[in-house]
Write a structure and sequence with these properties.
The complex is a heterodimer. Chain A has 5 helices and 15 strands. Chain A is an alpha/beta fold. The radius of gyration of chain A is 17 Å and the shape is globular. Chain B has a single domain, classed as TIM Barrel (Alpha-Beta Barrel). Chain B contains 9 helices and 13 strands. In chain B, the strands form 3 sheets. Chain B has a 7-stranded parallel β-sheet, covered by helices on one side. Chain B has a 4-stranded antiparallel β-sheet with strand order 4-5-11-10, with no helix packed on it. In chain B, strands 1-2 form a two-stranded antiparallel ribbon. In chain B, helix 6 runs parallel beside helix 7. Chain B is globular. The chains are: A alpha/beta, B alpha/beta.
Chain lengths: ~240, ~300
């Protein structure tokens, strides 16, 4: 973990309530796909944890949904500097991917799948990607995943684009060695039940500090109590208590 | 050169800064960031006789200038604290640590303190009396003069180290509670613990934290802390550790003027993990600004 000041270099809307922000600064503490950063926003007490979408030698990019005061304020910032804690959480374990993993992202659970896909490709593994949204207007990042040369399946609940239904409807027709997923909890539960292999899922929880000090985001697992922010946010399928 | 040293019940602290229990774990998360030996001491995560998972999540709610937490005393239990946490801490912290203890019965407080008493690393006990008393109708120990007195006497019997009672502000008259602790043999008091608070989500119309209510802390409660430290320190002879919303060197001076011998820093650690180090580094500058040569001279100096 590191604390640093980051300069906002870009902050653009991808859909009506999803934004993409690029921040320039010392990103050396960010080591794994699936980690998050924790952003201090003026006038708000607690930092806002947001997962990493992409990483470069001196920039980190996040994709976030406007859900409350914090993200709304963030969405209006066009420049300036932000106080950010970086390199938080464990991230995904690439070593377990097998030859043909599947990446499953739902809504704002899509962003961490992008850095994960890039990291897998670096080691010669080309995953299949499933992106789930409610409706066509909410889709983002399909093009970015395709540009990595990956097979991308998009699902929409209302059938306005791609496969009609949930990510699990697309998963049925995919062969895979392992799965990596991030999305709303009902989706994670559905993937947990529908998946035929082991895999990893990233969880969300309201956090106090984001670095393991306050025990605000604890959960029980088959391998003991874990802090979502420190031993998580990524948990292995076999340790989840469902 | 200014002198930041204070004496807390026979042990000299390099400075009065004490990260408050529950915001600093057992120290390691912070020792990865800076050398925590710069602290006066710190109060470790509230420890109970048995391991506790704590309350369901969500446990955290954002507030103006603060937060509500309902962690519910998650901890590995006293035996693991002695067997695992303290040996790990010894590798990164070479000063005496403050043992924060909670319980749900007088007997539990007594037994937990008894087991911890032989640990060389522990300099003081901080006894949190904000927990519900399961044999007393569930009301917090800290709301009754009789209950705090019983807890104080029970832990004094089994310990050879100074006992500091950590008081709840959720009472009609904190002075009478502090006096009851002093009369029962407490060596010091620390205050304030969190204020009971609640937030409601407008979309779901449900409380934000799963336990409905929780402890409110952060910058917003600082004036309440200063007032209570002032009232209590005027009324008792034992030292007072002041805490509640302290987030700057200026706050440290202010709460010491109100009567604090040492100063807890809590919620600030959660937002800025370097908060305590930054406050310690800034203290000499602020002392010089206000013409303070020695911090121990300003304790209770409010005119």
């Amino acid at each position: 973990m590191k604390q640093g000041l980051f300069e906002i270099t870009n902050n653009v809307a991808l859909t009506k309530d999803v934004m993409k922000m690029t921040l320039k600064g010392d990103v050396s503490a960010i080591t794994n796909a699936g980690q998050f950063i924790n952003i201090k926003i003026d006038g708000l007490f607690l930092r806002r944890p947001i997962s990493v979408y992409d990483l470069d030698k001196d920039t980190v990019t996040i994709i976030y949904k406007i859900v409350g005061k914090g993200t709304e304020q963030l969405s209006k910032m066009k420049d300036g500097k932000l106080d950010i804690l970086t390199g938080l959480g464990n991230g995904y374990d690439l070593s377990l991917s097998g030859e043909k993993p599947v990446l499953i992202g739902g809504g704002v659970g899509v962003p961490p799948m992008y850095l994960l896909a890039k990291r897998l490709i670096e080691k010669g593994v080309y995953p299949t990607v499933i992106l789930g949204f409610n409706t066509k207007e909410e889709i983002f990042c399909e093009k970015e995943f395709k540009e990595l040369g990956l097979d991308v399946l998009v699902t929409t609940v209302d059938g306005s684009y791609g496969v009609k239904g949930f990510v699990t409807d697309a998963l049925k027709n995919v062969e895979y060695s392992y799965f990596y997923t991030c999305g709303p909890e009902p989706m994670l539960k559905a993937v947990y039940s529908a998946s035929s292999t082991q895999g990893e899922m990233s969880f969300e929880e309201r956090m106090g500090c984001g670095f393991g000090a306050c025990m605000g985001c604890s959960c029980k697992t088959l391998t003991g109590n874990k802090r979502i922010c420190k031993e998580g946010p990524v948990m292995k399928k076999e340790e989840i208590l469902w | 050169m200014v002198d930041t040293k204070v004496n807390l019940l026979g042990i000299t602290l390099d400075n009065p800064i004490i990260p408050a229990s529950g915001t600093f774990g057992f120290g390691y998360e912070f020792s990865e960031l800076y050398d925590i030996n710069c602290l006066g001491t710190f109060s470790f995560k509230g420890t109970t006789l048995e391991p506790r998972f704590g309350n369901p999540t969500p446990r955290i709610a954002e507030c103006s200038s603060g937060l509500i937490n309902s962690v519910g005393l998650q901890n590995p239990g006293v035996d693991k604290v002695i067997g695992e946490e303290l040996p790990k801490l010894a590798k990164v912290f070479n000063k005496k640590v403050m043992a924060n203890v909670s319980g749900f019965s007088v007997e539990e407080y007594r037994e937990t303190c008894r087991r911890l008493n032989d640990c060389e690393q522990i300099g003081w006990f901080e006894v949190n009396v904000s927990c519900p008393n399961v044999h007393g109708g569930g009301l917090s120990f800290g709301t009754s003069e009789k209950a705090v007195s019983e807890v104080t006497k029970a832990v004094k019997e089994v310990t050879t180290k100074p006992i500091i009672l950590k008081l709840s502000p959720n009472v009609t008259d904190i002075v009478s509670i502090a006096k009851a602790c002093e009369d029962a043999g407490a060596d010091g008091v620390s205050l304030i613990n969190t204020l009971l608070g609640m937030r409601i989500d407008l979309k779901t119309r449900k409380p934000v934290v799963a336990n409905r209510m929780g402890g409110f802390s952060g910058d917003a409660i600082f004036p309440v802390a200063v007032r209570m430290v002032h009232q209590v320190s005027k009324a008792v002879k034992i030292p007072v550790i002041g805490m509640g919303g302290v987030s700057s060197a200026e706050d440290v001076i202010e709460i010491m003027l109100a009567g604090a011998t040492a100063v807890g820093v809590g919620a600030a650690n959660l937002v800025n993990p370097y908060a305590c180090r930054d406050i310690i580094n800034d203290l000499p500058r602020v002392m010089e600004k206000y013409n303070i040569k020695s911090l121990s001279e300003i304790i209770g100096g409010c005119k």
